Amino acid sequence: MSASVKYTLGRIGLFVAVLAGLWLVDMSVFLKLILALAFSAALSFFLLRGWRDEMAEEMAGAAARRRDEKERLRSALAGDDQPSTDPEPPTDHPPR
Fold first, then answer.
1. What span, in angstroms and rounded, lies between the C-alpha atoms of 55 and 23?
2. At 16, is the secondary structure helix, strand, or coil?
3. pTM for this structure?
4. Is the distance from CB of 18 to CB of 47 less than 8 angstroms?
5. In a 3-state reduction of DSSP, which class is residue 2?
6. pLDDT tens digits for range 33-80
7. How far apart are CA 27 and CA 40, in angstroms?
């Protein structure tokens, strides 16, 4: 399972757990939702630190791969790419 899915499911699970705990308290539903959101965000900062760091590393790796691929494509479009190992480049003219 990817780190981002794991972290997202952890955040949702914390929200549901806090909301279930607040459901027993007598207050408006809107206030329960807001408090559950705030408390679950604070708890996730401490409880899900490892998963958040893992997700950040996964996202940084993906960004680096996209950046490298972008640079490779830019250099290929500019004609700065490495010459091929073919002995003769293809031409539009037939051989003589």
1. 31
2. helix
3. 0.67
4. no
5. coil
6. 999 999 999 999 999 999 999 999 999 999 999 999 999 999 989 887
7. 18
Chain CA centroid to CA 33, Å = 26
Q: Is the confidence at residue 84, as pLDDT, over 60?
A: no
CA distance 83 to 87: 10
Would residue 72 be called left, alpha or beta, if left means φ above 0 and alpha means ψ between -120 and 50 degrees? alpha
**Percent of the chain whose pLDDT exceeds 70:** 83
Identity at 56, one-letter amino acid code:
A
Give residue for tokens 């990817």.
2
Instruction: Identify the DSSP state of 79.
Output: T
Quote the strand ranges of the chain, DSSP E: none
